[in-house]
């Protein structure tokens, strides 16, 4: 099979390397503005013109590894309209434009695959779809952002503050120069949307999923939770019940003996719960050049060999997202008791003017509304759901 790669950064070059080792795949064209160092020997494959790909009848499949939304969407749409299959690990693009891209692929007899978009090197989405063939998936949850997990794990082990561990994550290459998508939870949000759509055979939107990240956590929060035998992790959560979906992203405090509490450094742990199969968890590297590149190439091979995947497509029923029925207790830290917070509180301790609280059972919708309100008022607090 002859293919093209659009974008030749970390993931694009990783897909190239894995494809060369896999055999049976020829990379005919690479769309990028410059030749990546170390790949000068294939300079003749590089182009800056999309038409060199879309108008080449020999190219059957295109890998989009550019990142972002606007330009990748334009390029992917042109490739699909040219009847070329597309494989992408671009979670931003898939989460934001899922329905339109799936419809365009269907209209043009092309396949769109993106199992690397959530889980990276972990065969998460593939196994999620495989489970759905003969089971009903009721829940998906997990640690899906390695940057946040590295920061939280390091804070727990060292007692260091958030800013110090974020700086270390940057120095090690785990965090981008602008880490907002990671620490504010939007990266996890996008993976939640994609996973929920796969799990429940529906289409939910990013704007329907409340998200609270770890950007307001402090060393004092981690220390307090540690005293209680708890470890904080940033979690995606989605559950289907009674014709509605609860879906949200939030920090969660787990008992120190739990699987989630023992996911170290930048690893991921993603879990599905099926009616028949029960609970299954997948552990490994959720990002990286070769792990993600391998997932991309697995999609290419599946398309080449005619292996179908029952990916929920455009036109599927949209289930409503209702986080009012998702109820649990929370850890809350804030600097003063007020009329907005007090009704939620069950017990609290005051230390040096800071309130460390455990809430009554409260809905995710209500707690996230409170937390976002406080953040918008410039008085952010930290919240973490308490795992049952």
Description of the structure:
The chain is of the alpha/beta class and 388 residues long. The chain folds into two domains: 2-121 and 291-304, Rossmann fold (3-Layer(aba) Sandwich); 124-285 and 324-386, Dihydrodipicolinate Reductase, domain 2. The protein contains twelve helices and 17 strands. Helix 1 packs across helix 11 and helix 6 packs across helix 7 (162-171). The radius of gyration is 22 Å and the shape is globular. The relative contact order is 0.14.
CATH fold label of the largest domain = Dihydrodipicolinate Reductase, domain 2
Which CATH class of the largest domain? Alpha Beta
Cα gyration radius (Å): 22 Å
Q: Please state how the strands of the largest beta sheet are arranged side by side.
A: 11-10-7-8-9-17-13-15-14
Largest sheet: 9 strands, mixed
Q: List how many beta strands DSSP finds.
A: 17
Structural class: alpha/beta
What's the overall average pLDDT, rounded? 94
- The low-confidence runs, each spanning 5 or more residues with pLDDT under 50, are none
Q: What number of domains?
A: 2
Summed up, the helix count is 12
Q: Using the 3D structure, state the CATH architecture of the largest domain.
A: 2-Layer Sandwich
How would you name the CATH homologous superfamily of the largest domain? Answer: Dihydrodipicolinate Reductase, domain 2
Report the principal-axis shape. Answer: globular
Q: State the helicity in percent bands.
A: 25-40%
In terms of DSSP E residues, the strand content is 15-25%
Secondary-structure element order, N to C = EHEEHEHEHEHEHHHHHEEEEHEEEEEHE
Distance between the termini: 49 Å
């Amino acid at each position: 099979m002859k293919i093209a790669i659009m974008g030749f950064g970390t993931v694009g070059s990783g897909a190239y390397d894995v494809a060369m080792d896999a055999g049976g795949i020829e990379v005919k064209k690479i769309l990028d503005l410059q030749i990546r160092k170390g790949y000068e020997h294939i300079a003749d494959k590089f182009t800056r013109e999309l038409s060199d790909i879309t108008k080449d009848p020999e190219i059957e499949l295109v890998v989009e590894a550019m990142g972002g939304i606007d330009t990748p969407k334009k390029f992917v749409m042109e490739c699909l309209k040219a009847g070329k299959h597309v494989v992408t690990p671009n979670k931003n693009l898939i989460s934001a434009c899922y329905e339109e891209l799936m419809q365009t692929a269907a209209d043009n007899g092309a396949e769109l695959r993106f199992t690397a978009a959530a889980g990276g090197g972990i065969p998460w989405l593939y196994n999620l779809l495989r489970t759905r063939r003969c089971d009903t998936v009721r829940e998906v949850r997990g640690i899906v952002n390695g940057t946040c997990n590295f920061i939280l794990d390091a804070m727990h082990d060292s007692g260091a503050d958030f800013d110090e561990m974020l700086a270390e994550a940057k120095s090690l290459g785990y965090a981008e120069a602008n880490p907002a998508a990671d620490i504010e939870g939007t990266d996890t949000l996008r993976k939640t949307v994609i996973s929920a759509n796969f799990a429940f055979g529906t289409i939910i939107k990013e704007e329907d999923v409340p998200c609270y990240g770890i950007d307001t956590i402090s060393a004092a929060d981690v220390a307090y939770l540690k005293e209680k035998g708890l470890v904080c992790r940033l979690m995606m959560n989605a559950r289907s019940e009674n014709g509605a979906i609860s879906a949200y992203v939030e920090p969660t405090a787990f008992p120190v003996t739990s699987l989630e509490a023992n996911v170290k450094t930048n690893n991921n742990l993603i879990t599905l719960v099926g009616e028949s199969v029960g609970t299954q968890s997948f552990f490994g590297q959720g990002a990286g050049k070769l792990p993600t590149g391998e997932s991309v190439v697995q999609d290419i091979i599946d398309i080449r060999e005619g292996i179908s995947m029952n990916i929920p497509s455009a036109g599927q029923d949209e289930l409503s997202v209702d986080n009012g029925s998702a109820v649990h207790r929370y850890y809350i830290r804030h600097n003063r008791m007020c009329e907005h917070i007090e009704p939620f509180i069950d017990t609290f301790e005051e230390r040096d003017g800071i309130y460390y609280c455990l809430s009554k059972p409260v809905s995710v919708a209500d707690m996230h509304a409170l937390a976002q309100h406080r953040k918008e008022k410039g008085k952010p607090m930290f919240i973490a759901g308490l795992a049952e």
